[in-house]
Amino acid sequence: MFNKARLFGIVLSSSFLFSSTVFAGWTLDGNNSNLYYVTSKAAALSELNSFAELTGSINDNGNAMMSISLGSVDTAIDIRNERMREIVFQVATYPLATISLDADSSRLASLQPGESYRATHAATLDLHGTEQSLSVDVIISGLQGGGLLVSLAKPLIVNAASFGLAASVEQLREIAGLPSINNNIVVDFTLQYDADN
Protein backbone atom coordinates (compact mmCIF):
# COMPACT_ATOMS: atom_id res chain seq x y z
CA MET A 1 0.00 0.00 0.00
CA PHE A 2 1.30 3.48 -0.92
CA ASN A 3 2.40 5.35 2.20
CA LYS A 4 1.92 9.10 1.60
CA ALA A 5 3.19 10.06 5.05
CA ARG A 6 6.46 8.18 4.49
CA LEU A 7 6.91 9.77 1.07
CA PHE A 8 6.21 13.23 2.52
CA GLY A 9 8.88 12.66 5.18
CA ILE A 10 11.41 11.65 2.52
CA VAL A 11 10.63 14.76 0.47
CA LEU A 12 11.06 17.00 3.51
CA SER A 13 14.37 15.37 4.41
CA SER A 14 15.63 15.72 0.83
CA SER A 15 14.60 19.39 0.70
CA PHE A 16 16.42 20.10 3.95
CA LEU A 17 19.60 18.45 2.70
CA PHE A 18 19.38 20.23 -0.63
CA SER A 19 18.84 23.68 0.85
CA SER A 20 21.67 23.18 3.35
CA THR A 21 24.01 22.38 0.48
CA VAL A 22 22.91 25.24 -1.76
CA PHE A 23 22.98 28.08 0.76
CA ALA A 24 26.47 28.59 2.08
CA GLY A 25 27.76 31.38 4.27
CA TRP A 26 30.31 34.10 3.54
CA THR A 27 33.17 35.57 5.57
CA LEU A 28 34.40 39.15 5.28
CA ASP A 29 37.86 39.50 3.74
CA GLY A 30 39.27 42.32 5.85
CA ASN A 31 42.36 42.72 3.65
CA ASN A 32 40.23 43.51 0.60
CA SER A 33 37.54 45.57 2.30
CA ASN A 34 37.48 49.28 3.09
CA LEU A 35 35.38 51.56 5.30
CA TYR A 36 35.91 55.32 5.15
CA TYR A 37 34.30 58.27 6.85
CA VAL A 38 34.60 61.97 6.09
CA THR A 39 34.61 64.59 8.84
CA SER A 40 34.14 68.34 8.41
CA LYS A 41 35.60 71.02 10.63
CA ALA A 42 36.12 74.78 10.66
CA ALA A 43 33.10 75.13 8.35
CA ALA A 44 34.96 74.24 5.14
CA LEU A 45 37.68 71.63 5.79
CA SER A 46 36.89 67.95 5.15
CA GLU A 47 39.15 65.02 6.03
CA LEU A 48 39.12 61.36 5.01
CA ASN A 49 39.48 58.75 7.78
CA SER A 50 39.33 54.96 7.80
CA PHE A 51 39.41 51.82 9.94
CA ALA A 52 42.05 49.14 9.36
CA GLU A 53 40.34 46.22 11.13
CA LEU A 54 37.00 44.92 9.87
CA THR A 55 35.50 41.49 10.52
CA GLY A 56 32.14 40.02 9.64
CA SER A 57 30.06 37.31 8.05
CA ILE A 58 26.80 36.48 6.33
CA ASN A 59 25.27 33.20 7.44
CA ASP A 60 23.16 30.80 5.37
CA ASN A 61 19.98 32.54 6.59
CA GLY A 62 21.18 35.90 5.25
CA ASN A 63 21.97 37.39 8.66
CA ALA A 64 24.84 39.80 7.98
CA MET A 65 27.05 41.41 10.60
CA MET A 66 30.20 43.51 10.45
CA SER A 67 32.37 44.59 13.40
CA ILE A 68 34.61 47.64 13.25
CA SER A 69 37.58 47.83 15.59
CA LEU A 70 37.42 51.46 16.68
CA GLY A 71 40.98 51.26 17.95
CA SER A 72 42.14 50.78 14.35
CA VAL A 73 41.00 54.27 13.34
CA ASP A 74 43.37 55.99 10.91
CA THR A 75 43.15 59.77 10.51
CA ALA A 76 46.68 60.00 9.02
CA ILE A 77 47.90 61.86 12.14
CA ASP A 78 49.10 59.90 15.19
CA ILE A 79 47.99 62.36 17.88
CA ARG A 80 44.58 62.65 16.25
CA ASN A 81 44.28 58.85 16.17
CA GLU A 82 44.99 58.81 19.90
CA ARG A 83 42.40 61.49 20.60
CA MET A 84 39.79 59.71 18.53
CA ARG A 85 40.43 56.44 20.37
CA GLU A 86 40.50 57.90 23.88
CA ILE A 87 38.20 60.93 23.78
CA VAL A 88 35.60 60.25 21.08
CA PHE A 89 35.28 56.47 20.73
CA GLN A 90 36.45 55.65 24.30
CA VAL A 91 37.73 52.28 23.11
CA ALA A 92 38.56 51.05 26.61
CA THR A 93 34.79 50.83 27.20
CA TYR A 94 33.46 50.58 23.63
CA PRO A 95 36.07 48.77 21.52
CA LEU A 96 33.73 47.85 18.66
CA ALA A 97 30.98 49.27 16.49
CA THR A 98 28.73 46.74 14.76
CA ILE A 99 26.27 46.92 11.92
CA SER A 100 23.79 44.13 11.23
CA LEU A 101 21.01 43.46 8.73
CA ASP A 102 19.03 40.65 7.13
CA ALA A 103 19.57 39.88 3.44
CA ASP A 104 17.99 37.44 0.98
CA SER A 105 20.30 34.41 1.23
CA SER A 106 18.80 32.65 -1.79
CA ARG A 107 19.39 35.70 -3.97
CA LEU A 108 22.96 36.04 -2.69
CA ALA A 109 23.69 32.37 -3.36
CA SER A 110 22.31 32.54 -6.91
CA LEU A 111 24.49 35.49 -7.98
CA GLN A 112 26.85 34.61 -10.82
CA PRO A 113 30.26 36.31 -11.26
CA GLY A 114 29.68 39.73 -12.78
CA GLU A 115 25.99 39.84 -11.91
CA SER A 116 24.74 42.44 -9.46
CA TYR A 117 21.60 43.87 -7.95
CA ARG A 118 20.65 46.87 -5.85
CA ALA A 119 18.73 46.56 -2.60
CA THR A 120 17.75 48.69 0.37
CA HIS A 121 18.00 47.16 3.84
CA ALA A 122 17.06 48.29 7.32
CA ALA A 123 20.33 48.00 9.24
CA THR A 124 21.11 48.40 12.94
CA LEU A 125 24.23 50.32 13.92
CA ASP A 126 25.49 49.77 17.46
CA LEU A 127 27.98 52.48 18.41
CA HIS A 128 29.04 53.72 21.85
CA GLY A 129 26.39 51.57 23.53
CA THR A 130 23.55 53.03 21.46
CA GLU A 131 21.61 51.31 18.68
CA GLN A 132 20.08 53.22 15.78
CA SER A 133 18.25 52.00 12.68
CA LEU A 134 19.65 53.09 9.32
CA SER A 135 18.43 52.63 5.76
CA VAL A 136 21.33 51.16 3.78
CA ASP A 137 21.23 51.24 -0.03
CA VAL A 138 23.76 48.74 -1.41
CA ILE A 139 24.89 47.16 -4.67
CA ILE A 140 25.77 43.48 -4.32
CA SER A 141 27.86 41.78 -7.02
CA GLY A 142 28.87 38.15 -7.53
CA LEU A 143 32.56 37.26 -7.60
CA GLN A 144 34.51 34.24 -8.79
CA GLY A 145 34.38 31.33 -6.39
CA GLY A 146 30.98 32.31 -5.01
CA GLY A 147 32.19 35.47 -3.27
CA LEU A 148 30.31 38.75 -2.93
CA LEU A 149 31.24 42.41 -3.30
CA VAL A 150 29.02 44.77 -1.30
CA SER A 151 29.26 48.52 -1.79
CA LEU A 152 27.09 51.47 -0.89
CA ALA A 153 24.96 52.79 -3.74
CA LYS A 154 24.96 56.12 -1.90
CA PRO A 155 26.96 57.19 1.17
CA LEU A 156 25.50 57.08 4.67
CA ILE A 157 25.21 60.13 6.87
CA VAL A 158 25.68 59.28 10.55
CA ASN A 159 25.05 61.85 13.26
CA ALA A 160 27.49 61.56 16.18
CA ALA A 161 25.03 63.20 18.57
CA SER A 162 22.52 60.37 17.95
CA PHE A 163 25.03 57.98 19.54
CA GLY A 164 25.84 60.12 22.57
CA LEU A 165 29.10 61.45 21.13
CA ALA A 166 28.31 65.17 20.96
CA ALA A 167 30.10 65.99 24.23
CA SER A 168 33.17 64.02 23.15
CA VAL A 169 33.26 65.79 19.79
CA GLU A 170 32.99 69.14 21.59
CA GLN A 171 35.89 68.17 23.89
CA LEU A 172 37.94 67.24 20.83
CA ARG A 173 37.10 70.59 19.24
CA GLU A 174 38.30 72.49 22.32
CA ILE A 175 41.58 70.53 22.55
CA ALA A 176 42.29 71.04 18.85
CA GLY A 177 41.39 74.73 19.05
CA LEU A 178 38.89 74.54 16.21
CA PRO A 179 35.96 76.89 15.67
CA SER A 180 33.64 73.96 14.85
CA ILE A 181 33.36 70.25 14.10
CA ASN A 182 30.31 68.96 12.26
CA ASN A 183 28.50 66.16 14.10
CA ASN A 184 27.40 64.66 10.78
CA ILE A 185 29.89 62.29 9.19
CA VAL A 186 29.69 60.71 5.74
CA VAL A 187 30.38 56.96 5.60
CA ASP A 188 31.24 54.84 2.58
CA PHE A 189 32.42 51.23 2.26
CA THR A 190 33.31 48.44 -0.13
CA LEU A 191 33.24 44.96 1.42
CA GLN A 192 34.45 41.67 -0.04
CA TYR A 193 32.97 38.44 1.28
CA ASP A 194 34.51 35.07 0.47
CA ALA A 195 32.27 32.00 0.23
CA ASP A 196 32.69 29.48 3.04
CA ASN A 197 33.59 26.04 1.75
Structure description:
The chain is α+β, with helices and mostly antiparallel strands. It is built from four helices and twelve strands; from the N terminus they run H-E-E-E-E-E-E-H-E-H-E-E-E-E-H-E. It has an eight-stranded antiparallel beta barrel. The N terminus is likely disordered.
Counting helices, strands and paired strands, the structural category is alpha+beta
Mean residue pLDDT: 89
Strand content: 35-45%
What gross morphology would you assign? Answer: elongated
- Count the DSSP helices: 4
Oligomer state of the chains in this structure: single chain
Distance between the termini: 43 Å
The profile of the biggest β sheet is: 8 strands, antiparallel, barrel
What's the Cα radius of gyration? 21 Å
Physical arrangement of strands within the biggest beta sheet: 1-4-5-7-8-9-10-12
Tell me the series of helices and strands, N- to C-terminal: HEEEEEEHEHEEEEHE
Which ranges are low-confidence, i.e. pLDDT below 50, for 5 or more consecutive residues? 1-21
Helix coverage percent: 10-25%
Please provide the count of β strands. 12
Give a topology summary.
Elements: H1 4-22, E1 26-28, E2 34-41, E3 45-51, E4 54-58, E5 63-69, E6 73-74, H2 78-89, E7 96-102, H3 105-110, E8 116-127, E9 130-142, E10 148-152, E11 156-159, H4 166-176, E12 184-195
Antiparallel strand pairs: 1-4, 1-12, 2-3, 2-12, 3-6, 4-5, 5-7, 7-8, 8-9, 9-10, 10-12, 11-12
